[in-house]
Design a protein that fits this description.
Oligomer: single chain
Distance between the termini: 52 Å
Structural class: alpha+beta
Order of helices and strands: HHHHHHHHHHEHEEEEHEEH
Shape: elongated
Largest sheet: 5 strands, mixed
Strand order of the largest sheet: 1-2-3-7-6
Length: about 425
């Protein structure tokens, strides 16, 4: 069927759906790959409106009115709707707007004004399928390697990205502002094309840098938790040796004359202070972490309730298991420290049975936690000293095909982590 037999109204409908609805939406998805959106009801619709304003505005070489009018509005919307460091938002906004504007200038200034080419592709391609196809291609090209929402690059690296972004962004502005509307030629076309490709290349570069940063963080994360586990194990070994030596000395002293001394020493040897480390479960890693954290809670006058059933052998790396318990209890202890002593309570329940691992940590709360990206914000002076906190716990759960859920009802904070225990999981992940 030829284009001539299709009603004009049908083209208009396709124009609106693909161009004015789908394309800006896909553009906003691309933007959200690199910037966290604020947790406000109006944030995502407003961000979509900003992307629609930017991507659907007609841009002509030699006519800078539109481009100068929409840029401040777009930047304002991005900074209002998105979080993250200032340089991050600035870099992503410059790259995104540079790509979108150069693409619009190419379509409006060259494709639109070429009658032969325009008639060949059909007018509906201008605002509709052409824009949608380009944004879909960009989205799927970047999504596979896109950084996670909590990714971060050093400020110096963002500053470098900003400097590199200025070249294609300025090239687009200069071409549109200083170009000749009546005599635009191949030079303008090539400059806009290079600016568009460069902007896409910078988006790709950010994904690569963020991916590398993520790998470095995970490496540090595992190394830190291995050291943490080894230190705990060494500490417990020294304590056991000390208790064993003291018991031997007391046994020798018990042979001394005097029934009262012997009875006293017998009671002392049998006292809880002379016992080995408490066994919370069959798993050595869990025992070491819980023993260490219970000592901290006792020192800080936090009432602890611990109930665990974790076997010795699990298809979970020791570093991951250590991080789950250590980081979750660190967060619970931190929250309890803010409360009066009579309200400090922590409950730990963990079970690994029938192919499922479940960890639940509950602690008293004051209901005043600040949240960012769906996670409460730590108030620790050095949060890196305790791993990557809840974000790290969520990554570990996802690594084993599970999930993390957190709830807060004003007086109690609950952390729930669960994942399946498959033999292949611990070997391949």
């Amino acid at each position: 069927m030829s284009f001539e037999k299709i009603p004009v109204a049908a083209f208009n409908i396709m124009d609106f759906i693909s161009g004015f609805a789908a394309a800006p939406y896909v553009g906003s998805l691309v933007l959200r790959l690199f910037l966290p959106v604020r947790e406000k009801r109006w944030a995502r619709p407003l961000l979509y409106a900003g992307c629609a304003l930017l991507s659907l505005q007609a841009i002509y070489v030699g006519d800078p009115v539109n481009i100068l009018g929409i840029l401040p509005v777009f930047f304002f919307i991005v900074f209002l709707c998105c979080g993250g460091p200032f340089l991050q938002r600035l870099s992503v906004s410059l790259i995104f707007s540079g790509f979108s504007l150069s693409f619009s200038a190419l379509v409006d200034s060259f494709l639109h004004d070429d009658p032969a080419l325009w008639m060949a592709v059909g007018s509906f391609m201008k605002w509709g399928f052409l824009r949608l196809a380009v944004w879909l291609a960009v989205y799927f090209a970047l999504k596979r390697f896109a950084p996670e929402p909590e990714y971060g690059l050093p400020p110096k690296l963002w500053a470098l990205v900003d400097m590199l972004t200025l070249a294609p962004f300025a090239a687009t502005l200069i071409t549109v502002a200083l170009g000749d509307m009546e005599a635009r030629g191949v030079g303008d076309f090539l400059l806009l094309l290079v600016a568009q490709l460069t902007s896409f290349g910078l988006l790709w570069a950010v994904t690569v840098l963020a991916r590398q940063q993520k790998l470095e963080q995970e490496k540090s994360f595992y190394e830190m938790n291995r050291m943490y586990y080894r230190n705990l194990e060494q500490e417990q070994f020294q304590v056991r040796r000390l208790r064993h030596d003291m018991a031997n000395h007391l046994q020798t002293m018990s042979a001394l004359p005097g029934p009262k001394l012997r009875a006293y020493l017998d009671d002392l040897i049998r006292s809880p202070a002379m016992e080995h480390m408490r066994r919370y479960s069959e798993n050595r890693v869990v025992n070491i972490v819980l023993s260490s954290k219970e000592a901290v809670m006792e020192q800080k006058k936090i009432a602890a309730e611990i109930e665990t059933s974790v076997p010795q052998k699990l298809p979970v790396h020791d570093a991951d298991l250590c991080a789950l318990f250590a980081n979750s209890l660190d967060n619970a202890i931190e929250a309890c420290e803010k409360l009066p002593e009579n309200r400090r309570r922590v409950s730990v329940r963990a079970r690994a049975d029938k192919g499922l691992f479940v960890l639940q940590v509950q602690n008293s709360a004051d209901g005043k936690s600040a949240w960012r990206n769906g996670l409460p914000v730590t108030t620790k002076q050095e949060p890196q000293a305790h791993g990557f906190g809840l974000a790290g716990i969520r990554k570990i759960a996802a690594r084993y095909g599970g999930s993390m859920e957190i709830t807060e009802d004003g007086t109690q904070f609950t952390l729930l982590v669960y994942f399946t225990l498959e033999e292949e999981t611990g070997k391949t992940r």
